[in-house]
Amino acid sequence: MALKAVHVSDVPNLDCVPDNASFALYATRFSKGVEMERATSFKVPKFLVIGHRGNGMNMLQSTDFRMKAVKENTILSFNTAGKHAVDYIEFDVQVTKDGCPIIFHDNFIYSEEDGSIYEKRVTELSLSEFLTYGPQRELGLEGKPLLRKTKDGKHLKWAVESDEHACTLQEAFEKVNPSLGFNIELKFDDYIVYQQHHLNDVLKAIVQVVVDHAKERPVIFSTFQPDAALLVKKLQNTYPVFFLTNGGNEIYDDVRRNSLEEAIKLCLEGGLEGIVSEVRGIFRHPAAVKKIKDLKLSLLTYGKLNNVAEAVYMQHLMGVDGVIVDLVKEITEAVSKMMRPSGGVEGKIAMEGEDQVVVEGTRPQFSQRELEFLLKLIPELIQQ
């Protein structure tokens, strides 16, 4: 398949990417994960593909059925992602009021009773109460309706093609293929100022489960909460800690969250191993990649652009270590083609005017004009 140029107006909304997205890279799951020296260093041996909330986040308002195929943050979603060449799965961990680490993204659970919608903060529920929402483990037992609030304030029924009950962090360790790495996002509310003792209690509960059940499984901690990132690094020195940042795309009261420069400073001050940036922050400030790598920090990205294979490949060329993606099947297949070892069989190259075009089955090789086109395309995609 030849490399095709498309007009920006023809690029779909980024929550609905066509099946024939044209590019891709190699990701073979590695059994022993990243190379670690007791977290004093962290070396990524290959370009990583990480499944977002397992097999991809749920976007209930999307017209793309893939965004509603499997319930996010469930054992089913994790094992579905594991059927493809992902290296890690990323998921969100919070702690219930009775001290149990559970896997759930949103700060609030929404449900309906007698025609009225109500909300409850996840961390103010006990484990037993949390598990009463949505599908139940026992056959024939019906749970409380589970709704989700969209960014525009609508409450939608959390309806997906393949549903499953909620799970705890311990269950994930017990029921997911042990060769699949875990990227554990330590989830906190952006609008709460947490006291040190509270962060300490929450993080100790999570770390204890990891220590007790991880065994040889590769594990990465990540969080948007700067103090939590620093504290979890102090609580343990076995697993690497990454700081999550929007890379300047949004502004917060805590200045440490507002730029890649601040993220770098936090990592250096706290001895963290890397940064996970919203991908637009990287494309807007490409020079930051070299700085991050020169400082021996690892760099991963997240965001809707990571569902576009061209954007993923550009990051590989820039030196990014890995991407967190929703379209696990499509991107892992794309990566497997793009990242074929250079010593492999070369495919045929057709010449069209001044451009070099690579046919299907070859490792991507771009002319200067093609690279310039891609570099121009990315900023326009970012603005959408």
TrEMBL record:
One Pfam family it belongs to: GDPD
Sequence intervals crossing the membrane: none
Biological process according to GO: glycerol metabolic process
Keywords of this entry: Glycerol metabolism, Hydrolase
EC number: 3.1.4.46
InterPro entries, per database record: GDPD, GP_PDE_dom, PLC-like_Pdiesterase_TIM-brl
GP-PDE domain: residues covered: 47-335
Catalytic activity, reaction form: a sn-glycero-3-phosphodiester + H2O = an alcohol + sn-glycerol 3-phosphate + H(+)
Family as reported in the entry's similarity comment: Belongs to the glycerophosphoryl diester phosphodiesterase family.
The protein's name in its UniProt record: glycerophosphodiester phosphodiesterase
Organism in which the protein naturally occurs: Salvia divinorum
